[in-house]
Structure formats: C-alpha cells, structure tokens
Request: fold
Amino acid sequence: MNKHVSLNRRAFVIGTAAAGAGLALGLDIPFGGPTVVRAADGSPEVNAWVVIRPDDTVVIRIARSEMGQGTLTGLAQLVAEELECDWAKVTTEYPTPGQSVARKRAWGDFSTGGSRGIRTSQDYVRKGGATARMMLVQAAANEWKVPVAECSASNSVITHKPSGKTTTYGKVVEAAAKLEPPADADVKLKDPKDWKIAGKPILRLDTADKTTGKMVYGIDVKLPGMLNAAIKDCPVFGGKLKSYDEAKVMGMKGVKKVVRVNDTTVAVVADTWWHAKTALDALPIVWDEGENAKVSSDSIGKWLAEGLDNAQPAFVGNQNGDAKAVIAGATKKIEAVYSYPYQNHACMEPLNATALYTADKCEVWCGTQNGEAAFAAVLEASGLPADKCEVHKQMLGGGFGRRGQTDYVRQAVEIAKQMPGTPVKLLWSREEDMLHGTYHPVTQCKLTGAFDADNNLTALHVRLSGQSILFKLRPAALVNGMDPAAFQGLAPTGEAAIGYTVPNLLVEHSMRNPHVPPGFWRGVNVNHNAIYLECFMDELAQAAGQDPVEFRRKLMAKHPKHLAVLNAVADKIGWGKPAPKGVYRGIAQHMGYGSYVAGAAEVSVDGNKIKVHRIVAATDPGYAVNPAQIERQVAGSFVYGLSGLFYGGCTVKDGRIEQTNFDTYNSMRMSEMPKVESIVMPSGGFWGGVGEPTICVAGPAVLNAYFAATGKRIRSVPLRDQNITFA
Amino acid sequence: MAKLTINGKAFEVDVEPDTPLLWAIRENAGLTGTKYGCGIAQCGACTVHLDGVATRSCGVQVSDAVGKQITTIEGLASDGALHKVQQAWIAKDVPQCGYCQSGMIMAVAALLKEKPKPTDADIDEAITNICRCGTFQQAREAIHAAANA
Reply:
C-alpha cells in the first residue's frame, strides 16, 4: 500500500505548520502613524474597531469573513451593544490583511472557520466597542468641563444628566480620537442579560445588495485592462504537468497566453473567461499521472477496512476502564461497521482570485475565509515583502471550509507574475472545483457494545479508521502523531466532548491517509462521528430492548447540557406520543465547536423514497448573539448535511475524483427541504459556535427514523449508492 | 457581433454565436448580477428572463437570444422601486451568502407572474435552484409574502 501516505511518525515530527506559516510575517513593521488615525474618507478612528463620521454614521471594522453565516452582522451587534450607538447608523468594512500587518495585528485573527467567527473574537470586539464609548463620553465631558461620571451614552447620543445637555458621537469624535484609551482593567463589559442590540433577532446588514445583483463577489471583480484565466490542474492528485501544445490554441479568438502555472497546472489567459475556457478545453495536455493513478475508492476502502482490525496500531483518543476485556468476556454484545465518504464543499461560487503583479507590488482580490492566510500566500507566491503585498477581501459565494485554503490565491499570483502589469482574474470551472477540492475525509468505523444481564451497556469500543485532515494541512497540530480532531464529538472533555458515560470506553483511530487531499468541510469530523455514535446508540437501544431516548438518558446523567438539548427536541417532536400515521421518528445528539446540539426527524418511507416531513433541532451555544441567524444556520446545516447524506459522496477512480458537476454531485432542492423547527436555548456561561455543530445530527436523526420506519439499518453514505432518494 | 436587448437597453456584443448567453451578459454587457454556478443548467444561479420566461442562461446560446427581451436581476426593479420579490426577500432576510439568490429571485418573479398565488406544490415544482447555504425555508416564506403583498 505504498501508493498511500502511510502512518509515519517521522513525518509528523518534521512537518511544518503550513496553515499558520504566514501569521508572523512582517509583524515587526513599526507603526508610526499620526495621533489620529483616519479612514480612507478622512473620518477619525476612535480605535481600530470604530470609525465615526461627522454625520454620526458608525463604521464598524470586521476582520472575520462573511460567507453567509451572519458573522458580519453578529460581530457588529456586539460592538454596537457596547458602543451604545444607534444601530440604524451602523455600517461595516473589512480592514485589509496588509493594514493589519502594518498595525501590529490590530484586528487580531482573520481566520473564519471552526465556527469561531464570533466566539473567539467576542471578548476583544466588545472591549473595542466599550473602549470607544468611554472615549467618546470622556470627550463630551471634557468639552462640557463636567465629571465623566455625570455623563452617559445611548443611541449615539451623550447626555450630561445634571444639566440635560446632549451631543452626538459625530460631534465629539475628533476630540475622542485624540484621547488615550482607558486602561484595560477599567473597561467593563455588559452582562448579556442587559443586551439591547446583541442577543436580538435583528436583520442582517448585507442583504439589500444580494437581492439586486449589486453585491460584488470575487468572481465579479473588474479592473482596467483585466484579462481572464481558465485553469487545469493534473486530475490525479500528486501527478504532474508533462507538456502541452500551445500552438494549437494560440490562434483561437481572444487568447493571449498559455501559462505553465506550476509543476502540476496549466492555464490559458484570454480577453474573456469564456474564450480562455474554450481554448483550455482545446489545449492538448499530457499529464504524468504517477503512481496514484492506480488508486480507487475500492483500494482506499480495503486499506481503511484493515485499520478496523484491533491488531493494527491506533491512537487512543478517549479511554476509561477496559472496554476490550469487558467486550471479550461479555455474553451479549453487538458490532457494526459504518463508513462515510469524501465530500466536496461545492460552494455556489467556484473558486477564483484576481491578481495584479508589478515589480514592486502584488495585490489580490478574492473571497477568502482567512485574509491573513491569503496574504501569506501572496507573499510566498510573489516573493515580495509584506509592505508590497495586499489582499482585498470580497464577499464569499459560500465557503464551508474550502475558502480557508489558499491554493487558488497562489495560482492567481503565479499566473499574474508571468504577465506583469496586467490584472488577471483566475476562475475555476465547476469541473475544476469538483476535481480539486479539499475533501471531507474518508473514514470507516467499527463499533462494538457489550451488555450485562440487565441490558445495561457495560462497554463501548469505537474504532475509527481513516484520513486525518491535520496530518495534511496542519501537521504541527498533531500530538505525538495523533490527530486530536479525529475524535471530535467523542473526546473525554473540551469543546467536542462525548455526552455519554460508559463504564468501559475505548475510542481509537487508525490513521490512514490516502492521496486525496482532505479539508475542513462544514462540521468537519463531527459529520461522520455523529453518524457512527448516534446510529450505533440506536442499535444498542434496540439490542437492549429499550426506547432510544430512554436508553441514552441513562448514560447522560453526568452530561446535563447534552441531555438538555436531547430532552428539548424529544419534547418538541412529541417523542413517546403517537406520530402521524405512516410517520416515524429518529433522534440524535452531539457536541461540537463548544455548542450542544440535538436533532429529531419525522420521516415516511415509500419503497426506496424517504420523505423528511419535519425536523426539530436544538442548539445551546451558551450565548445567542442573533437568534434569527442561528435559526438560519441550523436550517441551512440540515440542507448541507442531508445533501451530503442523500446525494453526496465523491468517489475515486484511476486516482481522480469521478464527480464533475451538480449532475453527478447533486444538492437538495426546495421541494426536498423539510420544515426545520429550531430551538435556540442559550444557557449562558460559555461561547459556542453555530455555523457547523448542528449539521452532524441531521444524518443520524434521519437514518434512525428510517430504521424506525423500515427495520433496516443504513450504515454507509451516500444513500444514492443504495438507490434510496428523497420522495 | 450580436445585438442583444438586456433590461430594455441595446447591447452589441462581440462574441461567437454559440457563446452561452450567461457569459455575454457577464463579460460583454458587464452585468455581473447573473451568476455562474455550473454551466450545465443544473443549479439555476444564472437564471434570467427571456421574453418573461425564467431561463438558465448558461444553457442558451447568444444566437437564440437575439431579438428577445432579456431581463437580468439588474433590470427587475422598475421605476426605481424594487420588485415585490426583492422586497419580500429583504423583509424576510432570505439571503445567506447570496450568490445563488439573483437566479432564485428571477425564477420566483417568473413564477408569480404565471401563478400569482402559488401553492407550496407550485413552488416545489418551479423553484429548483440549488442553494448550498440552504435558505429554502426563508425563501418559501418570502415567496408567500410576495404573493400576498
């Protein structure tokens, strides 16, 4: 099996943190700006987060990326809450990664993944808002020559209570911008129970332009003199570009240049993208496909299946008691093997980036989930220093984890570098996007459970076999070779902890890394782990002759927050009460990204067709910054998760992905979308994410309901492989 | 060179007759509200109206659009007022990433012209656009709201 990248301890040690490589670049550039820092229109910054214009417009800076998940609006709500400004006057803007580097990372982390957009920046953005408010109020107090304690702010208006005098933020901002910010210890944040803007289901800030065609996504960028590039990377991952015959296409209409982008990739540059693509399709290309061309889904599947054998080495991610011994000695036990396939993100907007390279500057315009990583890619690909590079973030037509990678940014720069002075927009065709994803990793799982004479679960052994994302993308995050993220939702503690207490538990991972590049696909490892654990919980309950909810509850006494969301969905869907005729129910719970989630489904089955009638989903994210957006994320998660379950799955043949477009990698339509009833139940005291966690309960809730309806277990994804589809 | 009428305006576009209408709209007419999603008429992100009929513009050649009234998302508002579907979309906060929404809004506008009060079944049959963010629930609410506006 040397065609695959085998488990190799040495590789773990020498690996470098590619994903984080750029973050420290250029941070030493001294910041020697004027006392008052001004935005492009001349309006003063109160601080890095808040600019106020003379007309009282409040510009809130957002470092994280908006890709539909609502983070832009949520972060603005948090800043505005502490700023005490008029929400109707709020607008937002992205600082650029180049500006951030020049200002010693004034805006912190730009990375927008792992459902971290709000939860890992809430503290400092709220402080940014509070600090700005204190400076504005101080400026008013100074002007009135009154004690600041006698002044307060609300709705962008500052009032001196004893005299009744008022002024507005826009009138004092020039003075405020010159003040020293208060000491950190003096900045007090509000108790969330006093929130007026945050915590409310208010409308998004970025909707109007999305209904008129005015919103500019990366694909829409226009620059004077811009050309367009279409690209092909070797269809076999790890293969090389051998040769191409550019003479065959140079005479075609609009074609300007054929570019060897790098060792694996060729591009055609033309006046329009359609001309570039037409010529690229006509370009004779010879690939050196290499050894990986022998790999198929079958060979990967067999290799992973070997990892289910307990004799093979494996990393232990969670252990108490002696599950293996108890299982070996048990008279009653059950075992099942599950699997989950590769998945493509299939963002609606195919990957693209526009680059302009000159001898002393390189600029890129693109949608990215991580402005700083894109910036680092520009530096590396251009060879220019940080003060000569810039990334201009555009709206993302979907991200789902794919736009956290920077391969497309690098390619755009590599092309532009060969055409100095000419801006070039690189756009991947849908086919290229399907063939060169960073795929949800492929895994299998063998689960074994043992019971005592009273049908109590005495031992559970979860043995995962398959691909590690971190091994490929962030080797520095491995712990002695182990990928801790492989145990997402099955871990003993932390932000993705298992919700059951089993007397003897063993969760282990036999790492096997096929050549297909893995990536962070919305939900990441909870997608498969939740199907494995929650479908098997159903199997255990059945074997014990117990109700699936009651069976779970007995194991959840020490996990009250997991239990609370499970109880919430059970209650709302009417668990234990009769369902409508012909309708059956399934349930699942899990934890991921610091949030507790549960889902319950009502389905009916007619032959090979499943109708999902109703979904109830509960989320406890600790604090809910915008409940309406959480509901949308939850409903959308079911569409993404069920699309993957029913229609997804990328298969490998001759070393390459077989699915090339939405005709072979379908996605749910409106007619297939069940009604999702969302329960947002923030219990306070912690900050969990919402963009991803719920996706993982979609699959097991529906699969368990399918079993209730048919008595048949489905243990592999996608359902289309079993000729099962939506009604 | 082909003569196209887009949003009531004449455009002369220098393209081969078999160029997909989508690319003539985006690259030659410069109207980028119409989106590329798949190129094989599966996803609906490129939906425009051809003589009032919702059409996936990636699957239509420029030569077949000559002489027809082409309406894109940029031409949906009239007399400075947003179309009732756009208004409902804003009121119900429908878009997430928004990329597929031009096409979905165009499909819905055509549906409401044909069936002013569509049932859920009518909606299921007519609105087959792919939305990876999955904002279908809000879209359905907004369609009914627009129908009742």
